[in-house]
Amino acid sequence: MRSPIAVIPPVWALARRWGAVALSIWTDRRSWNLEARRFPPHSGVSIPAIAHAPLVRLLLEAGIALTPPQSIFSPAASFAILRYAEAFASRSQKLRLVASARDWDPRLTTILAEEIGVGVAVHLARTFLDVVHVADVAPLLQAGDLAFTTPPVSPMSPEARPDYLGVLKSGECILFEAKGAVGTAGRLKKPLEKAEIQVDNVQFVKHSPRTVNGQPCGDRIVMGTHFCVDGAHAKSETTTILIDPPGRGRVGDDFPPSDLPLRVAYAKAFNFGERPLVADALVRRVDLSGVFGAPEFEVNGLSVRAVGPFLWGGVLVIDARLAAILEQGARGNLSAAVAERTNRLQEELSTLEETPYFVMLNNGIGVLLDG
After folding, report:
1. 162 phi/psi in degrees, rounded to 5
2. Which residues does 103 contact at the CB level (< 8 Å), separation at least 6?
3. Rounded CA separation 133/324 (Å)
4. Cis before residue 261, ω within 30 degrees of 0?
5. Of 251-265, 290-304, 316-330, which one has max mean pLDDT?
């Protein structure tokens, strides 16, 4: 019997209603500074002094990360991409806000910094920490995949928690929290202190933390980005501070492995692509056969299927082989099959030339510019 989800109208076909956005935003690469703190020499993590990324990738990462996995589609995160696209100085190759940001309502700049700070953190987690899947911590706590530390790290904040869990290429996991502020590094002092409490107040239960030589290392990461304003912070540059607090390991080793984090991660992407019923079915392990009814097509040497609209007049896509794995894994554990495909996909992506109209993340979710 065909899944009822399969008959949902292909809303991705309506993407053109938003109109095409200038190609320049796709070729707009920005750079900013990185500062690593308290990473031990044996951590195996190498953080350079400067990071580079297309602006569209940072905005895409922010949009998906800010979208909840629950089946309540809200365009807020997608709109964030649109409203922030022009917030960065157009004549600068640096990741600096436009000069007019000095006159914006402080509440708006605070939200902007926090949300784009998430996009920056997720991009850095993929690039330098081998993260493939990014899931919200809240549903993992509810399911028992994670647990609050007992006793709490801070008695004043017994339920403090980070926002995200990242599943690495190795299958190990990290907890990470992102912070953002407008101004110089001093604006991040208190947010980073709070973030350390958040990542330290949650323990791994059904997942193995990142280890080096058998010991937890780099399994809790704090990342805070202060965004400088063009013409206002002449002696400072936008910088992301990465901190590696001590790890705590996990509660126990008697639990079966869980694939909930990757289900939540893909559910977030499907919700972002306006497919909330697909997102909900994936998390609830409902039959997904035939859900990707759109035919396969090839982009830059990769076979993909359409997921939903991208608000810049493009289409959110998924690697065709990953789509097949998700369709066939309604109730089984998807971890091994998804890992095999994403590892292979990363090898394929490393051999392809970048194009200005197509972005593919290492988890198999990508965007194709319309027209």
Report:
1. -75, 165
2. none
3. 18
4. no
5. 316-330
SS3 at position 8 = coil
In tens, the pLDDT along 192-218 reads 999 999 999 999 999 999 988 888 889
Is residue 2 over pLDDT 70? Answer: no
Residue 23: other Cβ atoms inside 10 A? 12
Closest CA to 29 of 51, 61, 48, 52: 52
* Backbone angles phi and psi of 322, in degrees to 5: -65, -40
At residue 6, what is the residue type? A
Q: Count other C-beta atoms under 10 Å from residue 293's C-beta.
A: 15
Q: Is the pTM of the predicted complex or chain greater than 0.85?
A: yes
d(CA 91, CA 108): 22
Q: Dihedral of the CA atoms 176, 180, 184, 189 (nearest 10)?
A: -50
DSSP output for 28-61: -EEEEEEEEES--GGG-----SEEEEEHHHHHHH
CB atoms within 10 A of CB 110: 15
What is the C-alpha to C-alpha distance for residues 54 and 86, in angstroms, rounded to an integer?
14
Total count of residues recorded for the chain: 371
E strand residue ranges, 12-138: 29-37, 50-54, 131-136
Q: Are 18 and 312 in contact (CB under 8 A)?
A: yes
**Sign of the alpha-carbon dihedral angle for 51, 52, 57, 62:** positive
Tell me: the pLDDT tens digits for 68-101? 998 665 555 555 566 677 788 777 789 999 999 9
Q: Measured in Å, how far apart are the chain's first and last C-alpha atoms?
A: 36
Structure tokens at 235: 């002696």
Torsion, Cα 166 267 68 245, to 10 degrees, reads 0
Contact by Cβ (8 Å): 183, 146: no
Amino acid at 279: A
Hey, what's the torsion of the CAs at 183, 187, 192, 193, to 10 degrees?
A: 180
